[in-house]
Amino acid sequence: MEISRRRILKTGAAAPMIWLARPAMAQSVLTVGLIPSEDSRAMIANSQAMMDLLAKALGMQVRPFVAADYNGVIEALRAKRLDVAYLGPFSYVLGTTIADIEAFAVAETKRAGRTFYHSKIITHKDSGIKTVQDLKGRNFAFVDPSSTSGHLFPKAGLMKVGFNPDKDFGRVIFSGSHDSSAIAVQNKKVDAAAIADRILDQAVAKGLVKQEDIVTVWSSDPIPESPTVWRRDLPADLKRRIQAAFLEVKDIPWSDQGMLNGFKPTNDAAYNVIRDTAKLLNLELRKMK
To answer: Could you say which architecture CATH assigns to the domain 119-219?
Structure first.
């Protein structure tokens, strides 16, 4: 399986909102991209405190932007229409093959108190599914081809236990967001779905799903949390100020992660485990510049 440059460019171009994010001119505006883990309005609302903090620390206007999908954010970074972005771990690794970007910070949530999370495969308690092998012939929802916990890790995890995701499911869909996958399981629109554990917790808290109705049949090893990245070609002084602003954050909500303890510095090498998992799936992460 190869995620090609052609596919990314096509997907990014197809997202009608992508061109609303305009490049910062003379660094008077900083544009910040957010992955579509939930409703775009909710993502922006949950990130507003961060946008305000950045604007104050940097002395410039900060504009949040949610693309239609993961690849829309990557393409906007490649086209220099975004300066900073919050990406999933795999979408970041994929993004480094077509855009000159670098991870610089990772969030530690109050709920988890850690900088890693897990992927889960969930089902409805009435589905009769108790184990991974019970998924054979069932309808399944991944999140997005570029989603770490919503596609990459659960697919690799299934393969490790002898389940063939390309042949053993009845029907496979990509829901577009973790919330959509959770709702599809709750409403029995699909038999099972992959989802990030922290986003499942939030879906329960928001009343989108009922905890008592959800059964977990598989959980991944720890996954490094979603990084915040910047374009490498941003001015060095601006990057220093951006990272300093992120590392000073305490007790505010951020994107789909909820309330934060704060951010920790990170780097590209921290995501080599993602690259290794991609290799297991024979995903070709070639340089495509």
So the answer is: 3-Layer(aba) Sandwich (3.40)
